[in-house]
Amino acid sequence: MGFVLTVLSIFFDEYNIPSEPIIFIFEILLVIIFSIPKVIGATISYVYFPPEPKNVEGKLILITGTARGNGRELAMQFHRLGAKIVCVDKDEVGNNETVDRIKMEGGQAVGFKVNITDKEQIMMMHAAVRDQMGPVDILVNNAAVVETTLFTNPEADDTISEIVNTNLLGTIWVIREILPSMLERNSGHIVTISSITSLKGMPSVFAYSATKFALNGMMESLTNELKLIKSDVITTTVCPYFIANCPDKSKARILRLPELPVEDACALIIEGILRNERVFTIPDYYFYSVPLVKFLPEDLQDLICDVVYSNIEPTPDEEKIIQKYTKFAEMNKPQYSMLAPCLKMGSVPD
Question: Do residues 208 and 195 touch, judged by C-beta distance below 8 A?
């Protein structure tokens, strides 16, 4: 083995040489050999023999951010599948309206006014849920603050804090409160609604995009922790494209591909949840196309983004900031001259 390391060190830096290199190479070859039929089989199964959706009739589903939009639509569609719904939102009026709509259709639902950035409120809510409805079977982390934030906007501090505290920390606090009861029963499903902006950062929404990137990493870590303890608790991360769930937000979106209707988007989200998919996008082709584009040269990536554009119109104040720094950039760009190459060589053409 010492001889092998000596030979490898001639061609590679020490930090690029794995421990037990011969065994490592052999194991990599085995992984490749066994992966080929697994990948082919999984692809065939996914396309032609998708798993049957699980039955949620009588199950207790807790959804955050149910006062409007995606959260309300998810609550309504899950209720129509026979589930009992716990609606959680800091907007009490909108949340109660969602509960009333479910009850008017003959469903079971309770609502709780909770700010998910407050751990004590989350604990009190969960205790009440267990007393009134029983243990949570499926947790859907949907609550989020969606606001534009420009890096150079000096007035954005409070908005940035609200986005991070709600979208990231709030989701973590809810999961940490409810996960132990699932682990004790070795049963449950934790769902987090991320975003297509978690796959590619967008200008003007850096804080929102950053929290969604973080949620993807958090959910992947959670999945691996559950594997570590051999738990049967399931995780799902959903990355949807822009959804037409708020007219005011829609007005500011400049999109080549139109927004998804909220009913259709939520139906696809629920379909993936019921099939226990671990990570998926809505529409599904974004799952492969966005990472694939990132393999291309940056100028080609920019060209594709110019064709398949997704932009957020800045507010008037943000537009002023953009114009201000654009002028600085233009003023300080290097001045190129056709004579520069000749001057550099020490000669000027006649």
Answer: yes
Which pLDDT score, from 0 to 100, does residue 349 have? 47
Number of Cα atoms under 13 Å in the Cβ half of residue 121: 11
Neighbours of 45 (CB within 10 A): 11
Residue 246 in tokens: 């708020």
The answer to whether the beta carbons of residues 290 and 199 sit under 8 Å apart is: yes
Question: For the chain, first and last CA: distance in Å?
Answer: 67
Tokens representing 306 are 């110019």
Which of 40-44, 243-247, 271-275, 321-325 shows the lowest mean pLDDT across its residues?
40-44
pLDDT level of residue 19 (50, 70, 90 thresholds): confident
Backbone angles phi, psi at 141, to 5 degrees: -85, 100
Beta strands in the chain (DSSP E): 60-64, 84-89, 109-113, 138-141, 189-193, 234-240, 243-244, 253-255, 260-261, 279-282, 310-312
The pTM of this model reads 0.87
Could you tell me the two tokens for 300? Answer: 């080609």
Residue of 144, 161, 157 whose CA lies nearest to 198: 144
Checking if the pLDDT of 183 tops 90, the result is yes
Among the listed residues 330, 280, 322, the one whose alpha carbon sits nearest the alpha carbon of residue 148: 322
Q: Is the bond preceding residue 240 a cis peptide, omega within 30 degrees?
A: no
Catalytic residue list contains 288: no
Residue 73 zone, left/alpha/beta (φ > 0; ψ -120 to 50; rest): alpha
Q: What digits encode the pLDDT tens for the residues 112-133? A: 999 999 999 999 999 999 999 9
Structure tokens belonging to residue 25: 């190479």
* AA letter at 59: K
State whether residue 150 is helix, strand or coil: coil
Among residues 48, 208, 286, 288, the one annotated as catalytic is 208
